[in-house]
Amino acid sequence: MAWIQKASYTFILVLLSLFPNAYGNSDKHVQMYIRDDVYNDYVRFLDGRSPLEITDFRGGYIRRDVVDMILVQQALLLGGFNKSFIYQTGNVNFRNTSLLRQGKLLLSFDSYWLADAQAEKKDVFISDAVIEEGEYFAGIYYAPNNASVEKIEQINDLKDLSAVSTPRWRTDWQTLSLLPLQRLAVEHEWVAQAHMVSRKWVDFMLMPLMPSKGNEYKLEDIHLIAHKKWIVLLLGSRHFVVSRHHVDGERAFKALQIGLALLRQQGAIKKAYLQAGFTPDLTKFKVLNASEVQ
Asked: Is 294's pLDDT higher than 70?
């Protein structure tokens, strides 16, 4: 692989676009499960392009999940994994973890917090960090007509507010548990959490910023907006996980590690999250829990 390490990332992608059959036989496929709203934004952002062509992550429909999905495919290819993916969409949050344990799902396109990944380490390989500790900031999302959240001026204003998450998301749960909330509700399904916030049964939830959408989230009858001033720092790093029990698991993991190293060496990973707006401009936002995480 020494010659690949010497080649530029851009040059490799140009070669792949010119010779699409070079990265694998079209008869070789891996079935992947993915949440339908993520897949829809992924398709809209690509707009007919291959994920392997993407070097600029600015544009409509981009979000952290979509950046993850594109980077993991680029890393796999650069590392030599030559199978393409067939997608099956649906509401597949914690079902994915179960499928990884069973070896029915090769990997998660959505990166995991290290704490969550380590809890599954007997069943999954854990990649090097794709988002380093101290780089992950979440938006405070709430219903547009929830004036109580909009009026937050300091962390102590949270004492009259409620949030929702699940202990299964260890980093999110720990971060919210350290905030001076009136109540932290438990709901294990992400879509159900969003419904609760949209209907003002709870005040807010943490979600990645989505500047390409004006930091708004809409799905059917769900409508959430991010606070214009405050963000929350989540302490932890994020990693891709690959099933130890899938027939292609070990080979895919080795390829992923090689590809991530190459992308990181080129500065492509940090550039992607920065261009997508996932890494916020800290001159425009303030970290609500800065004193708690120092």
From this structure: no
Among 1-15, 95-109, 280-294, name the one with the lowest average pLDDT.
Answer: 1-15
pTM confidence score: 0.78
Q: Of 193, 188, 218, give the one whose Cα is nearest residue 206.
A: 193
Interatomic CA distance for residues 156 and 201, integer angstroms = 21
Buried residues in 65-101 as b, exposed as e (16+ CB within 10 A) = bbbbbbbbbbbbbbbbbebebeeeeeebbeebbebbb
**Residues near 68 by beta carbon (within 8 Å), at least 6 away in sequence:** 109, 110, 111, 130, 240
pLDDT digits (tens, 9 = 90+) for 108-146: 999 999 999 999 999 999 999 999 999 999 999 999 999
Of the candidates 79, 69, 107, 123, the residue with the CA atom closest to the CA atom of residue 272:
69
Question: Do residues 279 and 224 lie in contact, with contact meaning Cβ atoms separated by under 8 Å?
Answer: no
Distance CA 118, CA 124 (A): 9
Please give the pLDDT value at position 112: 93
- Cβ atoms within 10 Å, residue 181: 18
